[in-house]
Write a structure and sequence with these properties.
With 322 residues, the chain is of the alpha/beta class. It has helices at 15-21, 35-42, 58-62, 82-87, 100-116, 118-126, 129-133, 158-169, 192-198, 218-223, 241-250, 289-307, and strands spanning 3-6, 23-26, 47-50, 69-72, 92-93, 150-154, 173-177, 188-189, 201-204, 228-232, 253-258, 278-280.
């Protein structure tokens, strides 16, 4: 039986099938798996089932000549050196499609919360300021209208399109930009610059690649419509967080909703955490019980197929199969 290391306890049912076919070693915690422990645990393993929090880089892979397959419980695989795996003919499984609607729900939630200052109002009440000061006025916690506004979607893949469907229910005009031209019903395809100039809300839905890293840099953020809102549920590294913080502090941008960050967990000195007009979440785009269970099942089935010498159902580097 092949030995498979799993970097976290998984929900779902299919992990039990993998356990019947392989010798499983599951990290039981507490907390996240330290890199040194990951290297030690993988020393005798032919397979790996990992999370987006596990860094699988070329140095680690070079120390694992016996490794035969990797399956990640994630859609994005920017935490893994895909080129190094492919060069060795090692298949990499991932979990596309399953979290589309769930992530779009969170993106739209962050947009609404940022626009209507929900987190600020919540904190105001919890801190006892409402009753203590009998605070109310015509501009008391006024926010931005979402209904009828213009939404710009950066990346018109499945999640971007799901975001557009929600926006249409709010009577929003939807603009879209994609790295490769794509016509999507209900989305007006425009240039990157036009999208930034015209949009009241901008939502990011591209994968993190060499081409998209720093896509929303200081120059791009300066192009954004004054008083607009930025939402990122894609990946950290796409948005220049320092430039975003400056634009939010100066009032050039109205607010932001952020589920992903360049460094995760987020350091306490990240300037976005200090701003009242930023809604933050700890990378929970796919965090519903049903979606996470389905992701875990897909990851387990990818690993099971590889352990049996079969092609993974969802492979991020299918070229390894020739």
């Amino acid at each position: 039986m092949k030995k498979v290391f799993v970097t976290h306890q998984l929900p779902g049912e299919k992990i039990h099938l993998l356990g019947q076919a392989c010798e499983l070693n599951v990290w039981m915690g507490p907390g996240l798996l330290p890199p040194a422990t990951l290297r030690e645990e993988l020393a005798a393993a032919q397979g790996l089932v990992c999370m987006l929090t596990d860094r699988i880089d070329a140095d680690l892979l070079a120390a694992l000549p016996q490794l035969e397959f990797v399956s990640s419980m994630s859609v994005g695989v920017d935490h893994i050196d895909v080129a190094a795996l492919t060069a060795r003919g090692i298949p990499l499984g991932h979990t596309p499609g399953v979290l589309v609607e769930t992530t779009a729900d969170l993106a739209f939630s962050l947009m609404l919360a940022a626009a209507r200052r929900i987190h600020e109002a919540d904190r105001f009440m919890r801190d006892g300021h409402w009753g203590a000061n009998n605070a109310w006025s015509p501009d008391f916690f006024t926010g931005k209208d979402v209904y009828g506004a213009t939404l710009g979607i950066i990346g018109m893949g499945e999640i971007g399109q799901a975001m557009a469907r929600r926006a249409q229910g709010f009577g929003m005009e939807v603009l879209g930009w994609n790295r490769s031209p794509r016509d999507v019903p209900g989305i007006a395809s425009v240039s990157f610059e036009e999208l930034l100039l015209r949009s009241d809300f901008v939502s990011v839905h591209v994968a993190l690649t060499d081409e998209t890293r720093g896509l929303l840099d200081a120059e791009a953020i300066a192009l954004m419509k004054p008083g607009s809102v930025l939402v990122n549920t894609a990946r950290g590294g796409i948005v220049d967080e320092q430039a975003l913080a400056r634009a939010l502090s100066s009032g050039d941008l109205y607010a932001a909703g952020m589920d992903v960050f360049d460094t995760e967990p987020v350091p306490a000195d990240n300037p976005l955490l200090q701003l009242p007009n930023v809604v933050v979440a700890p990378h929970i785009g796919s965090a519903t019980q049903m979606t996470r269970a389905r992701m875990a099942d897909m990851a387990a089935l990818n690993a099971l197929a590889a352990a049996r010498g079969e092609a993974m159902p969802q492979c991020a580097n299918p070229e390894v199969y020739g």
